[in-house]
User: What shape does this take?
Amino acid sequence: GAVVSQHPSRVICKSGTSVKIECRSLDFQATTMFWYRQFPKQSLMLMATSNEGSKATYEQGVEKDKFLINHASLTLSTLTVTSAHPEDSSFYICSAIHRDLEQYFGPGTRLTVT
Amino acid sequence: EDQVTQSPEALRLQEGESSSLNCSYTVSGLRGLFWYRQDPGKGPEFLFTLYSAGEEKEKERLKATLTKKESFLHITAPKPEDSATYLCAVQAQGGSEKLVFGKGTKLTVNP
Assistant: This one.
């Protein structure tokens, strides 16, 4: 149990376009999901907390208008990178809270902006 | 500010050579300490949650322990497939479910 999926696993887009990444909890409901970003050989950096039915809470320094988060159901959160630029290229990972505080992670999405 | 420091940054072991990874933390009231394993290009895989000092948990060759200031991940008789980056994270009391991660320990087990 406690499986989290992400789609797509890899995406390449042109500078100036927008990209949407989906995060799904497959076998449990998650009122809270998180979005992280990870640069090569670095640890995870929390970008935002996604709460079902309400606005996301962004970490300091993360642009809300650039990284749009929607948590429309108890099993789905989406991250849209708007007007992407090469510096947005990174590994994006989501996670979902399962019972007893356990946070399970998706497999990640590799975004490359050309 | 909550902080997590992991040591060593990298560790090379021979197959069968047991060792421990360290996670030191400062947090304003610990709600939980988490260990994850991450393989290159993949998301972290949940291993353990520890809630209070003195608690221990085991899974196959891994054993996690917790004190009031640090946690250890003991690896007994490791195999090459145990090679990965091991991440430690803490969650503070006070309502937020955010995790604060350490930078990880990259473990390489040579056959």
About this structure: DSSP finds no helices and eleven strands in chain B. The longest strand of chain B covers residues 30-38. Residues 41 and 84 of chain B are 11 Å apart (CA to CA).
